[in-house]
Amino acid sequence: MALTVLSMDEIINAICLHMAERKGVRVQEVQVELSWEEDTGYSAEVWVQGRSQYLVESNMIEAVLRYLHSEYGIRAYREDVRLELDEEITAVVDT
């Protein structure tokens, strides 16, 4: 089994692409800020057309799964992806 690691920038790109498609806007109109808090875990604040919305970890993983498929041709499952925090947030995928 191999590991694929997505950088924080790739996670942000994945969320931007996912939200742009869901909201029917251009990718450039989406802004994302990732965070990790001890109480709540991983989350992303997303701004689309001046409105803010929070995504929880499962929403972030959904975006990562779509990104893996569209950009890398990798079909992964939710249980194959875990978010990790070292110096930055990364997504580690068992492929």
Automatic annotation (TrEMBL):
Protein's name according to its UniProt entry: DUF2653 domain-containing protein
InterPro entries cross-referenced by the UniProt entry: Uncharacterised_YxcD
Any Pfam family: DUF2653
Taxonomic lineage of the native organism: Bacteria, Bacillati, Bacillota, Bacilli, Bacillales
Organism field: Paenibacillus graminis
Domain of life: Bacteria
